[in-house]
Each structure stands twice: as structure tokens, then as C-alpha cells.
Task: structure prediction
Amino acid sequence: MPVFHTKRRIEFGDTDMAGIVHFANFFRFMESAECEFLRSRGLSVKLDWEGQTIGFPRVSATCDYVSPARFEDVLEVAVSIDKIGTKSVTYGFEFTRGGIVIARGKVTSCCVRVGSENRIEGIAIPASYRARLSEPEA
Result:
């Protein structure tokens, strides 16, 4: 079930020589939509939280392509939370244009504490972060 919606206009630089969006750009689009979703809840992929710096590096990302997108297309992006584990969250993304599915993707990130010299250590997602993450779309 989608928990957040946003839009993305395809820019000329997003396209390849065939005039369609290059496949790798969908990963950038997913990251951008994830960050918008998190900002809408006062969260981020890296922030100071309850006295510690936490982050959510990606550990898995996939995308399946159904139909091409082209320069100037406006894609609707639905973001859903497919799974929240103890230490990780998996987001689902569905890209549509006029109700037609263009692509579907998934990104899994794990929660880490960022220490000195940017060393990371996996930790459980803080309960207060998890609660904000799970709020319904406004």
C-alpha cells in the first residue's frame, strides 16, 4: 500500500541516445523519492537521532522495467514500505505515467550507527524513528 506520492519530470539528461530514460537513472529516481518521503516525516537517510548519528546505507536495490519513459514525461512515483525489520527497511516504488506502469523497484536499507572516522555498526531501528516512518500519508 503506497504511503507517499511524488512526481518526477524526465529531463533531457535522463535519456539515452534512443530518447528513453537510461535504466540506471531509475535508481537515482528511487533514492530521490525515498529522501522526499523521509523528509515529509522529519527523517533522513543520515541524521542525528537521540544523541547518536544514524544512517541507512543501501544493501539491495532492484528495478523491473515495463514501458519506456521519455524526455518531458511526468512520472507519478508511489513509495510504499514493503517491510520493516529489526534493523532494515525495504521500500517499494511504482512509477506510472497516466496510470500506465513504467517501472517497479525495491530498495533495502539497514540502520547503522555512524561513529568516529565514519565507521558504521548495524543497530536496531530506534522505536521513535520507526513510529515516524510508519505514519500514514497526510
Summary: The two ends are 14 Å apart (CA to CA). The domain at 2-133 is CATH 3.10.129.10 (Thiol Ester Dehydrase; Chain A). The longest helix spans residues 25-39. The chain has one domain: 2-133.
